[in-house]
Design brief:
Helices cover 28% and strands 51% of the residues. The chain is an alpha+beta fold. The protein has a four-stranded antiparallel sheet, with helices on one face. β2 and β3 form a beta hairpin. It starts with a strand and ends with a strand.
C-alpha cells in the first residue's frame, strides 16, 4: 500500500448534493479497490488560470488516500470518465 494525494477540480455550478455525490463516488472507487481515504480537504471555489470546458472557476478538493499501486491506474481511468470532474492529479507521497 502506498500513500497518494489526489487533487480534483469539480465543476463550479454543482449544488451541494451533486458535489458531495461526486466526491463520494471517488471515495467509493478507492475503497472498492482495497484502499482507504485518510483525509478529505475541500479548498473551495477558486479561479482557474485558463478555461477548462468553458468554465472559469472550479471547486478544488484534496484527498489523502492509501492505495495499492496496481489500482492507481484504474482509479485514474474512472475519474477521467466522471463528467463532473474537470481535472485531477494523482501524486505519490
Amino acid at each position: 500500500m502506498r500513500k497518494y494525494e489526489l487533487v480534483c477540480i469539480v465543476q463550479p455550478d454543482l449544488d451541494e448534493t451533486a458535489f458531495k455525490g461526486a466526491i463520494d463516488r471517488v471515495q467509493g472507487w478507492v475503497t472498492e479497490t482495497g484502499g482507504s481515504v485518510d483525509k478529505v480537504d475541500v479548498w473551495g471555489r477558486r479561479r482557474l488560470s485558463y478555461p477548462i470546458r468553458k468554465q472559469r472557476d472550479g471547486q478544488y478538493v484534496l484527498l489523502n488516500i492509501t492505495l495499492d499501486p496496481k489500482s492507481a491506474s484504474g482509479l485514474e481511468r474512472n475519474i477521467r470518465y466522471l463528467e463532473t470532474v474537470l481535472r485531477h492529479m494523482l501524486v505519490a507521497m
